[in-house]
Structures
1.
Amino acid sequence: MKSQPVEFLAPVEYDLRYAKDFYDSWKVRGAEDFMQRFRESIAWIEWNPEMFPKKYRQFRRAIIRRSYFGIYYAIEPEVTTVVAVLDMRREPRTIRGILELRK
């Protein structure tokens, strides 16, 4: 698979805000550390979108290193679309429901 650009659905902004608030609430520079690892994961997705496994239907998941969060995305012909950044400790049925609403 060739590399391709990554785009984000609008709700991902709220997902990231939740994650940054979560890490800032108990760790000094938590949000900054999380965002650095998030950017690293996005770079891997951009470089090779097929690198990470399918988790639900067409959605793949990249686990953000040293965090509880995963990046859920779909590969399209010309772009990779990030649909959610979610806390993976959630009930799997809840995660699937969120992905269904955002597809």
2.
Amino acid sequence: MRYLSTRGQSPALPFCDILLGGLAPDGGLYLPESYPRLGRAELDSWRSLSYADLAFVLLSRFIDDIPPADLKALLDKTYTPHTYRFVAHPGEDAAEIAPLHWLEPGKLALLSLSNGPTLAFKDMAMQLLGNLFEYVLEQRGETLAILGATSGDTGSAAEYALRGKRNVEVFMLSPHGKMSAFQRAQMYSIQDKNIHNIAVTGMFDAAQDVVKAVLGDADFKARHHIGAVNSINWARVAAQIVYYFKGYFAATRSSDEEVSFCVPSGNFGNICASHIARSMGLPIRQLILATNENDVLDEFFRTGLYRPRQAAETRVTSSPSMDISKASNFERFIFDLTGRDAARVRALWAEIDQGGAFDLAGTPEFARLPEFGFVSGRSSHADRIATIRDLHARFGVTIDPHTADGVKVAQAYPQPEGVPLIVLETAQAAKFAETLQEAIGRDPGRPAELAGIEDLPQKSVVLAPEVDVIKDWIAARLAR
């Protein structure tokens, strides 16, 4: 399996090379040269597999430059009940990874993805990414400086996955003062010497722009061995594909049945994985994209206009991990929507990279959109408070604000009889105590071993979101 850039001007590479590189040299994102197609009999034969075994049969289709026995060992090491031990909802089996939690049996369910060490769905992919990095770097005798940006959960998931790993330094940018207290504490309280937190003044998009600019500087990237851990890294998206299959198998009895998924979306990485699962043959009827007040993606799926907002237009909301107005992974979907026309993608992103927009309304590409199963909707603060309160009252379930955005939007798309609707849970409510206090009048509680995390010593540096400032700071730490 080789990987192509969405902009078509970088050589095709094997998995391990793009794992360490992240962004393609031409500024594009990597995708496999083709998506493996799966038959229904094959799908049904996988129903009883453990999570680690399911990950192996799926990811071995995308990774052929790691010996199968080594890949299997890495997956077995990653997906263990001990790692994913923080039960999100009453009645869930603590030994099950990514359990399905029915709200209305056969109709509406949550896919619990927040049972990992940072209580967020990002752990599902990031724990594997940490083990892959360590394995490949050791095989090659190389070192890597990981650079990433986070609006909340990616940073802590990456740092927990990479803390103490051999041959890896982590530099994580986050928006200064914009995350929840729990999210900040999870990141900034890590004292491992290979973890470096940079709080940038401004919104997440400014941090993400800096990361892309640094990764786009081929000389700096090569000189300092810089790689990516955001979902611009294909391995993150590939690992997320697995839990869509897991959720599908839990909700159905045979591959003759369909399901729909609703995915809270900011950077488009999570729902991009579901698009790929659908392209591989998983019987998905609808992919429902849910945004908060930062509704750039909802606007595109409704109108065809993709118009990233400037920092001043990006709103600070009570679902902060989705306070994003430039969806990095969206380029992957547009590549597929245009029939993998790299020249067309280059032209569209030339507008975006210059601070502009593009409008596909009335184009053949937008006319094809229904083939991909996407619909979308938007949620507000009032919506998420009402949704959290409603699910708590009706089902005794406590959900976080981002998952509430998903549930709210999902309710606008009732499914035909016999088609379950699965909302992807993004995090445990414990990470957003302030919003939960407003919604249900009490602290949602948290696992005992995470009690008092906000009181731990924290370390971070506050810098302006300027490329040269960040590069100089990183270079100085790597020179020590």
3.
Amino acid sequence: MKPDADLPRVCRGFTLIETLVVIAVLAVLAAMATPSLVAWHVRDQVDARARALFSTLSYARSEAVRRGARVTVCRVDAARRCLATGQACRIGVADWSCGWAVMVERGGASAVLRAQTELAAVSIAGTQTSLTFTPPAGQLIGSFRSFDIAPQLSSRITQGGAWRRCIRIAAGGRPRISDGACGATS
């Protein structure tokens, strides 16, 4: 007599219906979470770009003081040449999302100290196409300047002040970053 022959056979595992129900629930959850993840990624890009521009402006001001020379921050093309007002870059926009460079004037020529590449997903609207910091105190030539940083493509999810950053630069050359659009009232 075989000992296992009289025992009922036990099957373990999931039925096809149970597996399909679990897959359907996971698909619904993924579909609900996708817009939030995309929105989070866009906000992260806006924050990163705002911090990069802020640190570039601070660096340019400090280099003007340290070197005792005029230091310019300007929008650049792929070859790191300054772009003129209204001139579009390779990605077809005429704002600071094309990228920018910090340049120091030496003997009538400009040398690149630092450069930032383009990021088409984020729009950076500025009042000027270049800023020049002067020694001995790193002051900015001209008056008050600002940059409005926001997602390039606005959607229902990415509207409002939570999705925008503003960098303001006083005539003294010090940048300040804040949440919301530059024209918004607090």
4.
Amino acid sequence: MSLLQKIAIGYFVALMGGASVNYIPGLTDENGLAFGIFALDLYDDALHVASAIWALAAGLISKNAARTFLILFGAAYLIDGIFGMFTGYGFLDLGIVTNASLGIDWSLKRWLANLPHLALGGFALFAGLFMDRR
């Protein structure tokens, strides 16, 4: 199993963890905010599970499938995180279409809300483009 396949399977685990946040007692506050920072709804959970299944399939199929997953997933999630920083909403959940922009906000809360997509997307894109290129 290649490094990229192992990374893709790691993304399966991380994304399933993200999808389960709303269902683990104590991780959401009385307002339904995960870790007191952001809200996840059924659509977000479905997106995370679909991405996780894609990651697992890519990781099990081949190195090239894992690379393709990492590049496409990475680009989509990184751009979603960037949109979140600039508008308060991402595009993957159609938030930028259904909500008016909240404008740019460099607060810690906005960073923390978008950090999962920025970090997961950024690392996946980096891994897909530059790692295990033998």
